[in-house]
Fold each of these.
Amino acid sequence: MESILKGKHIVLGITGGIAAYKSVTLLRLLIKAGAEVQVVITPSGKEFITPVTLAALSGKPVVSEFFTANTGEWHSHVDLGLWADLMVIAPATASTIGKMANGIADNMLVTTYLSAKEHVMIAPAMDLDMMAHPSTTRNLATLASYGVEIIEPAAGELASHLVGKGRMEEPEKIFERIESYFSRQCDMQGKRVAITAGPTFEKLDPVRFIGNYSTGKMGFALAEECAERGAEVTLICGPVSLEISHPNIRRINVESAREMLEASKEPFSKADIGIFSAAVADYRPEMRADSKIKREGVDDMTLHLVKNPDIAATLAADKRVDQKFVGFALETDHEHENAVKKLTKKNLDMVVLNSLNDKGAGFGTDTNKITIIRRDGTETTFPLKSKREVARDIIDGLIR
Ligand code: CTP
């Protein structure tokens, strides 16, 4: 069978670490699969592996400097960024990771990364103490929030003979991740997805509302993930300050729960996959004042609230057998029991549970820690990940 990598353009970045010798195996696997590979190596990468070996294997001169000294030929990082379908940096040292996270463009590889429009993967490799240093953790989290896919290093014996986390993932595993990236590219082609996201605001008067802390980040990450995998996405979102631009995403802005329900009816009825990630206000003020409520002469006030429609339950009640609907459950106690209840009560196929007891999960953060609970009773718990990676896990769980 023809490899999915055939004809794909890949920039392989190599930096100065012992693991650079493993990049030769990765390069061979990519070439054997029919990919076109342009190696970009940092000056210190050349201390570990020679450009001659890499050029011979890839069939292309290796790029390292901004221009070739004797001919003056300029190497355009912008052109490389446009040419590539994927950029993989393996190994990625602490120094390169730090430069990428902070925009320090002092070599050809980092400049190429900064100009890259394509997906970027990095396979960190360093000593265990460097790996555990807070600056590395912070830089990796920054890169993950930019959408960089991080191929976690394995634990094992390191070049220093110390044993711990920091060893670059094996070339075969990195190759699998590359294959998996390209097969994800088209696995939602022709699918329609509807997603609710963000909070809803329920007006009290022209200047005040009842709302919640949802930022919409999880829903937006899901929309981006689906769109990049080829789906046509309708994103119905409450008031959020996020921007999104992808030709496959149609965004509908709403404010209240009732507006969200109205705007969601048509997209959800046409969707193959429906995702309810909005933090919908369960109640709204019964009365809405037409002019600003004044405080003069009012010492206390009672708000009477009435129930909002349950958007997920309403739309999933008419779900067809060819549709899959997913809900979220943000819980503080009896998490599992409550999530299972929501699954059946709302007629969903899957519930994504996140607990407010988990650090880094829930509202406002760039990360999330989830458990996926399915209709057939099976479930999977994932470690803390960036919201984009969480979105990938949710979609993989739905369509694979
Ligand atoms: N949901 C919805 N409309 C509502 C309330 C919730 O569509 N009025 C959806 C959410 O988008 C989420 C799921 O239902 O996918 C569960 O939301 P959650 O707030 O956890 O559940 P509730 O049913 O509101 O229950 P409670 O707040 O009492 O835990």
Amino acid sequence: MGVLNVTPDSFSDGGLYADVEAAITHGLALLAQGADVLDIGGESTRPGATRPLVAEELSRVVPVISGLVERGAVVSVDTMRAQVADAALAAGATLVNDVSGGLADPEILGVVADRGAPYVAMHWRAHATEMAGRATYDDVVREVGDELVLRVQAALGAGISADRLAVDPGLGFAKTAEHNWELLRRLEELERLGLPVLLGASRKSFLGSLLAGPDGAPRDVADREDANVAISTLAARTGVWCLRVHEVRRTVDALRVVAQVEGREFVPSDPAGRVDPA
Ligand code: PMM
């Protein structure tokens, strides 16, 4: 899954693709590098970010989604809002990636159910202005799993079928760096949910801290990609279904290596089925 943030303020690529044509060009480049799906988001969730108005979010994502779908892309919309999910699906998006797992706007679950779209429920506790204060756990892996079970139950209750669901532990969302590492150490434990797992390390700040220089300054965002590829490689070995990344080619190379080592052929799945968690 290639990340395409059409926001002025996302931490890694904010402002780069705010213009529709620039966004479409970048999306096509990610597809050429081997992305199966493009995840288009119009709201930055970086720690402390303020929310855009609904109209703003719609005007950012809908033209980019239509433009890329017209050019044959399979598109996911990264939104917590029912109204945006509905407009995105109407514009041709296939999948809804909700970082709040239906907590921010519970109506999103009904919209997804009505349209029969695949849905990714990410672990989330609070909006970006409050999430740092919610990063307290006794056992982060158990609690993230338990809270995801509740989100899955809500999705099923709203009518989304089990074979349309995937989950994501939400690296960096109401989690400290140590929480993220613990989740990565024990990723297999999420298998108890019985659902495909999506993972997005996408150059987040825990990688910047790990790679800090001798002066303690975090490694620059643009220079965290090798660490990101290492995570993708390890995650692929544990059977993660989907990796959400900014640099597609390097991740695809890593996945090809993993497939080779595991004695499998690397075959990107077919365009119709490739974003179907089932
Ligand atoms: N991270 C971000 C945005 N959307 N969606 C899912 N499913 N999982 C994530 O970890 C996730 C997400 C924020 O990171 P970005 O700035 O790289 O988009």
